[in-house]
């Protein structure tokens, strides 16, 4: 051995392992490592989790302590690419380095997770996840609608489980469950089932199952889209969400009326077990029969006890039978005595009903009838005359009222005509037309508004001058104040002639020329 190597310090294996551990932990205290999970078998008997992170060139041993694993929001899965955060250290027992993971998240889904949380808070604030919105799942639906891929194992598992438990009519709406356009297809399927008629050729389902197998967050992202969540929340048909495995949660799970951990569990929630129902029905039938038999035995015992407390029928009928015999003996004598009494009464009444008495009574009633008839005729004649007098008096009164109303109407019309004439005269007295007939003129601007002062007129302004017998168009040449001499003589076209005033429309000799 060379002397230079003989002077090198000597370490024990433990010392060297501890030194290496300090070096690694000091150099890489806290790291984030991206890789694929390999060798994951779940928690060990101690509760700790061991697996490897690998890429195409290297492998890194990983460990998650029991306490940390229980707090992880995202659980590791075999073959899933993740980003693990933790401390890098060594394990002296096997001379290898490893990472002690404190947090783990899917690789590339950090933004997705943040978006998912934000979307969840938004939809929760809108009330789409409220328990009050959720409907009860029907106990035994007649028709079940399934929204899933028609080629996957999910639909086969659902149909197989339904056939084992309680066969029902199933309508499958085939959709894409992953990739572009899958969210729109799932939402359209949910709304399509709800739009079906209950009495149509294809009956509307009583229950909906939205199902998909497990996968990564990216694979299940279609079921986190708002269009799918809102369609599930708006569904009037009770809906079971069966997306992914037990550890997979999507936003449709919160909006659905019930969440199933797996598609098979969704089928189990949808229908009961037929054999169990039959067994329970038979058990209830046996219990009902046994209960009825016990009730009959109880009533039979009560009847026998009551029968023993009742007296003998012969004893009950002995007294009434003896009274009946006594009455039967007295009945013939009583009948003969009653007949004799009625015969005597009949003879007494027949003596009073002789023909002479009847004729006398009839004659007396005829006389009374004649007297009543005579009085009735007299009363009717008197009533007729009274009514005729009243009608005559009423007719005279109506005639007098008609004449008075005619005279009053004529007087009212004359009064109204006189008032109208006075109003007309007053209107003419206050109308500007009367002023124009006295030789004045009304000057308006080009817009038809009257001009009340010279200050409102500017040179070159078109004017409209209204006289008593017509209107004259003019243009202002100049403007001067009252009392100022005219400075500009207006030019009068040679062809212009003043209008002749109409006869009878104004007093005096009429209005002169505007410029004369």
Shape field: flat
Question: Approximately how much helix is present in the residues?
Answer: 40-55%
Which homologous superfamily in CATH is the superfamily of the domain at 115-272?
Succinyl-CoA synthetase domains
CATH architecture of the domain at 115-272: 3-Layer(aba) Sandwich
Describe the fold and architecture.
Helix content is 48%, strand content 16%. Among the domains are: 9-107, Nucleic acid-binding proteins (OB fold (Dihydrolipoamide Acetyltransferase, E2P)); 115-272, 3-Layer(aba) Sandwich (Rossmann fold); 436-475, no CATH class. α5 packs parallel to α9 (263-270) and α6 packs parallel to α7. Residues 500-516 have low confidence and may be disordered. By secondary structure, the protein is of the alpha/beta class. β12 (462-466) and β13 form a beta hairpin. It has helices at residues 3-6, 13-27, 66-71, 110-125, 153-165, 182-195, 226-234, 251-255, 263-270, 274-309, 313-351, 355-430, 432-437; strands at 31-38, 49-54, 59-64, 81-91, 96-106, 143-148, 169-174, 207-212, 239-243, 258-259, 442-444, 462-466, 471-475. It has 13 helices and 13 strands.
